[in-house]
Prior knowledge:
Shape: globular
Structural class: mainly alpha
Distance between the termini: 17 Å
Number of domains: 1
Low-confidence stretches: none
Strand order of the largest sheet: 1-2-3
Amino acid sequence: MVLRLQRRLGGAREIPLGYGVTVSHRVFGYADLREAEATAMRLARQTLPAARAFDAECLDDEDLGPEHDEALRGQAARHLVKLLLTRFGTGWSGVETEDGAAAPLTADYLDAFLDTFPGVASSLHAGLLSPWVALEQEGNVSAPLPGTATAEG
Length: 153
């Protein structure tokens, strides 16, 4: 018997962020996610603070401290959220401009939102990636090939 998680990757999703703010996005594929992650990491290396970037250029990778990796991962996560929502976001509710009009989901407003509410980036990151994390945790659901040796025989 094979059990697997029900996959809910086939449709648009809405991520509640609290305080009446929700972000919606259309479905994106695994290849889209991996490409966005690679782009986010490249952007993170380019946008590291000057002191960290200087250390990265002067020192070998093994001589860089854990704070360098942490800064790089944090930058990459923020860029990933922005990339995915810029490419696949369909809108948000509960976010207004200064004059009270609904704010469009654009890169500039998204930057301002993430700067104003920095803790939201981790919630968005988790919400955007949760279906893919569940799928990866499920593991390989393929049956073994005929004639493949197993622990039982």
